[in-house]
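Local shape tokens:
==================
===
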Amino acid sequence: MIRTNLQLLHIIESLSEKTEAITLRNYGVGQRIIQQGQEGKSVYIIKSGIAKCFITEDNDKDYILEFLGEGELLGEIEAIRKEVAICSIEPVTPVSLYTMSNIEFMQLLKTRQDFNATVISLMATRISNSSIKSARQQLYTLSQILPQLLSALNAQQITFTKQDLSEYLGISVRSLNRLLKTT
């Protein structure tokens, strides 16, 4: 449910001690880290906290792709492709982030084999997880998915708003409330 990558976190912690090009920033709940459609100049790695990655559709409805935790990478696709942000990133808990410029990120990809391999692995895992989530949402009813989701949240001792849960499931809060009454 909440993606983490402790291997990347350890690498970036070690690198941050050796260079001033990697700094630490803090964001509060609701502060946008990355804005969909805007140019990104930085790449971030979550040191602590949880953020949501979401797409805002033309009808102004948000769809949460995933929740990101410690060691997760933000803004890498935009840095690699040199394009505007394809999604928004916003904290759901206070977050502390390692920050570096896109140029520094690309340099690390070229010069640090361990960093490069970890980033490639992280991106492959994301593709795999997105495929699995998409398949589940196609193959199972929401009444089957919701108990599994609530169980995963409970196991991780995490509470999300009904708004966030409904956006993660791609349904309205009203539909979520109806489902919660039946489970």
Residues 2-139 form a domain with the Jelly Rolls fold (CATH 2.60.120.10).
